[in-house]
């Protein structure tokens, strides 16, 4: 027993000794880790120099002061400093773009400063208080993204011209260059008001012609330098190839100082000849502006080339160059150039066909001839490029998955649209030389309009020329046998035509041609800016027999519109249309029922403005309905401001809540008028009989309930200024308004854009349409009225069901 107990005691002692060793090693490891962490803290100071502030008794116990130094050891050996380290913001990082400083992003951070307020040094502790003062300035961002990113337009052309050349040389340059450059400015010597339309003319009130270029340069720097990359200075007697100039500048890098043109006299000259044009970069123009005073004082020569060149040499230290980015500026200068005698010789020169400018041109006729010649040169160059591209595409098609020869025709045009469902299948229109068949779902045959006729005739003429080229000129066109046309939104208009050709022996040949008119470049049409805050005046004409319809109209818009509209944005003008003195005398009594309804509306919507008016027409028999909007606008032109937004409608319409905001956006003063196409209800009896729909108070947008009536123009949105401008043209052309439609007058007399499109928010209740003798004087309106009578009753399927049911009823009765 004694031996056993002694063994247990020795084993226990051995385990205790091992345990104490483990504890000792753990303590040594913790001590070494703590010491190493303190040693690494100064290295972390490289990454972050900000001081952490520890609060509380724990931090105070670590604060001890070294009397011989200005800083505490805590500032260097605080192990908890990394826990309180502030995160670094993007404002602390400097971005450097070594490629191009022009596109270096600029960051506007909020400014924060740390201001020490108080610092007390005691024997055992240090107390530091830091206050963050935030001076955050509001950053005003530009309206457009291009302004913020510094994106500029390509080129501005500054033309030095004379007053007597505004209608000749200057007008020609404006018409031929406007499609190829971003802006053209014409500088003259005196103020003129009678210059051609669409020309931007700046007058320089200084008769010293040798200083004129410096006025131009000063104007360009102060007014336009932020908007353009290149500036092209040229006199008005220089012919400019706008297409070639734009193509040339597209290949030149904007990240350089450039003074480009044709060297004066010889290739060793340092001045560019002003007559052939001078291209300046934006950076060079900025440098010139700083030396304009020196330039004007040293402009002692009457030669503009010398004055401009001396100024640029002083300001930018640049000589003239005709080469940039491996592209050469070509100019043709010949003071004895005569087009009729010299063009046959110079046209053989490659340099002449690649030239950008020709100087001098002494008459406008020569400029027109040069324009025609270079148009043909550019067309030939494009045709050759197209052939090269087609050949390249055909060669590369062998490497595609489809294999050789499986590219869509014509080469280079996107593949045809592939419909995913049967509802996406594109329509083919069948046509002959005068009519188009099945153009819409509601028509079987339509007479060709002028634009359709010109389109198809051009296709036929081109096909006949191709057949004559292939089979000989003896074949002549006789007639069109069949024609098919399809518009593909991904590629263009596709034509397949069968034409009959006849030779000298009167023998006929039927040939089929397949043609494609590809889509061109998509252009964004600039439109003026409009908002939804414009006040709208709703003019509601009410005839004496339409009182119940007007009350129903007020009931409906009280539910849908009045909650959204306010007094400063909306006003209703209830207008009683009368034709006799008796009706005019009873108009106040006639309005009593409507006033009662309006008073009920004012109880729930007191912010609305509803006014009452009476318009007396000369005679009900002489003024048809389609002419009455003109009399209404005449009546209100003295009651409303000229910039008032107006919407005319009829009391049978239901208007949804979102329509008026859309009207405010679609009507643009002096630019666009809105004629919405409303959804007109079919006859309620037929709808109820065929589809058992008994509730006709609301009109559901469905093909069984109605149709979009494009033959009437009862709903009109326009500004009063547009009507007043039209009224001047009506009086000038001496047009009778009693038989005229407002829509037709805008089409015939003005070039204002008209938006005539379906709008699902306008739904009109059924009313019978009468085509009486009052509108037979206007054949166009009479035909429109007949079409409304024909299509406004019901759909073809509904009418067929009514006929079948009547026939079955008659058989049963027999």
TrEMBL record:
Its EC number is 2.4.1.-. GO terms for cellular component: Golgi cisterna membrane. It is found in: Golgi apparatus, Golgi stack membrane. It is an enzyme of class 2 (transferase). The chain crosses the membrane at residues 21-44. It is a single-pass type II membrane protein. GO terms for molecular function: glucuronosyl-N-acetylgalactosaminyl-proteoglycan 4-beta-N-acetylgalactosaminyltransferase activity. Pfam families: CHGN. Keywords: Golgi apparatus, Membrane, Signal-anchor, Transferase, Transmembrane, Transmembrane helix. Belongs to the chondroitin N-acetylgalactosaminyltransferase family. This is Hexosyltransferase. It comes from Adineta steineri.
